[in-house]
Design brief:
six-stranded mixed β-sheet; single chain; 3 helices; alpha+beta; Nuclear Transport Factor 2, Chain: A
Amino acid sequence: MLAAFTRGDIAYILDQIAADAKWTSSLAPDVPYCGEYNGRDGAKRFFERIGGALRVTAFMPEKYVASGDDVVALGSWSGIANSTGKPFTSAWALPFTVRDGKIVALSWL
């Protein structure tokens, strides 16, 4: 899934999400993609909001930790804020849960 995000293949990611998935972004409330999203349609809105807010220039998964159905991916990303034109680089953590080959929960931290 993270490789798909790196190459901009959102359709592939959406296909990997369970219909009843819970998807949250717990960043500051003024971040345009902050919030809670449900199912594939919610995940699609999440990616649309990221695309409207940022131009991602790099997305680098660096480490994975797994235990049963739970995975935490750690990495960093860079981009340019569409509203200001300013570049950013930030670390991220993505804890998610996979059941029956589909993502059922994900948090963008």
